[in-house]
Every structure is written in structure tokens, then in C-alpha cells.
Design a protein that fits this description.
By secondary structure, this protein is α/β, with parallel strands linked by helices. Helix content is 30%, strand content 33%.
């Protein structure tokens, strides 16, 4: 979603497109849990994907109802979840005031910051599949092309066809939206327009994604986390090149 703003260059003034960003609050059973800065599109997908990737729910069926309330101050996502899922929130209570570049804001301890990662079924990727997806990515990023300020996360078939994509000003939010929209848990891989940080790998593993391809670099913790989970991790995916990463523990074994 984009909006218009005046751009001043010298003595010339013209209209330009800018990506929309606003506070999006997530409430579970009437209790505020997080406020994220996000692009207010595909909010149903965002609510479900955030709930899954943060481990708040274990299955989409644990979401009973979602109400979206838009005000002049932002958007509230009022989510009604199963009692067992709400109990998990109360046991792992944390308040997060999130920015578009932050996925761990508000964690109250180091133990909360680095959470265990579930194992996934690794997805072998052919170079041609990565190339096909990279070549097509910009076609699925209209806000990014118009404003230069949004990230995209795409779900790709094993041969590299982009099946769906979601955009957001925040890279974590774009991936959450994709996770919420992805109904088919069959083979394939996720492609993201950002770096592969720990948070991105953790969210993907929690959603059962066995391969993550990033157009930028991975971090050391992301590499170790992907290795622990059995995930295939690709970085610097550009036309004609990509790099697969393994942890030092695997290399030295």
C-alpha cells in the first residue's frame, strides 16, 4: 500500500509515492501483546502468520475470530484464540514495541531472545529454481517498485515459480504475512528481499519451511540456527549467483 507525498527538488515540487506505515497492535483475548510498525495490508495474513511464527498458536484452527479496527492512530487486530494458546502467552508474557527493523524488541531475558528452533525437512534446491525465482521477484513487488521502501517475501515452487508474495515495510512482517497466507505445506522454498537474520530463520522454521533464500547476507546466528533445524539456507541470491551456508560445526565435523 502506498500513498502520495510532496517531493521538493530545488524550486520544483512534485508528487511522489511513498510506502504506508502505521502502528498495528495485536491483542489476544482482549490483552495487548505487541505493537508493530507495519504496512496495513493483508492484515488477516499478518495476524495468523505472526501468531504462528511467534509460537502463540500451534495450528491455524486455534484462531477463533479476528476483528480489525482501524482508527486515526493505527490498526488493532483483536484475535480470539483457544484457551491453551492463551495460556502460553501468559506463561511467556512479554511486551514488544516493534519497529520495522526489529524482531526481538521487548524480550525480557537472553533466554527469551534465543528460543529453541524446531526441526524442518530440508528442501534441496536446484540453481535453476533459485535463478527463476530471483528473476521474477520484482514482478511480485509492486509497492517496492513504486516506492523503493518495502520488503517482499515469496513462496516458490520447487522449480522456482513464485506462487504467492506479500509485501511490508518490515521484513519480519512481510514473512509473517506470507506464513499466514501459505495454506499448502508442500515442497517449496521462501524467498526474501532482505538479509537472513536469526529472526527470519526462526520464523521460517517455526512455520515448517525447509529452505530460505535471501537476496542479502545471512548472520552467523542465522547460519547456526538453520543448521540446527536442518534448513537449507541460501544467501546473496542474485541473477547468476548464490551461496549456500553451513555452520562451522558442520564444516569442522
Amino acid at each position: 500500500m502506498s500513498t502520495r507525498a510532496w517531493v521538493i527538488k530545488g524550486d520544483q515540487r512534485s508528487l511522489d509515492l511513498v510506502v504506508e506505515e502505521c502502528p498495528v497492535a495485536l491483542e489476544y483475548n482482549g490483552i495487548s501483546h505487541a505493537v508493530m510498525m507495519a504496512t496495513p495490508t493483508d492484515l488477516e495474513d499478518f495476524a495468523l502468520g505472526f501468531s504462528l511464527s511467534e509460537g502463540i498458536i500451534e495450528d491455524p484452527d486455534q484462531v477463533y475470530q479476528l476483528d480489525i479496527e482501524r482508527t486515526s492512530n493505527g490498526v488493532t487486530l483483536a484475535i480470539e484464540i483457544a484457551g491453551a494458546a492463551f495460556d502460553r502467552i501468559k506463561r511467556r508474557r512479554r511486551q514488544m514495541t516493534g519497529r520495522s527493523g526489529c524482531g526481538l524488541c521487548g524480550a525480557e531475558s537472553l533466554a527469551e531472545a534465543i528460543r529453541p528452533v524446531p526441526s524442518v525437512a530440508a528442501q534441496h534446491l536446484e540453481g535453476s529454481a533459485i535463478e527463476n525465482a530471483i528473476q521474477a521477484l520484482s514482478q511480485h513487488q509492486p509497492d517496492g517498485r513504486a516506492t523503493g521502501a518495502s520488503h517482499v517475501a515469496a513462496w516458490c515452487s520447487p522449480d522456482g515459480r513464485i506462487l504467492m508474495a506479500r509485501e511490508d515495510v518490515g521484513r519480519h512482517n512481510a514473512l509473517d504475512k506470507l506464513i499466514g497466507a501459505r495454506k499448502d505445506h508442500g515442497p517449496g522454498f521462501a524467498l526474501i528481499s532482505s538479509r537472513a537474520s536469526y529472526e527470519m530463520v526462526h520464523k521460517a522454521c517455526t512455520a515448517g519451511i525447509g529452505a530460505l533464500v535471501a537476496v542479502s547476507a545471512p548472520t552467523s546466528l542465522a547460519i547456526d540456527m538453520a543448521d540446527q533445524a536442518g534448513m537449507t539456507l541460501i544467501g546473496f541470491a542474485r541473477p547468476g549467483r548464490y551461496q549456500r551456508y553451513d555452520s562451522l560445526e558442520r564444516i569442522n565435523a
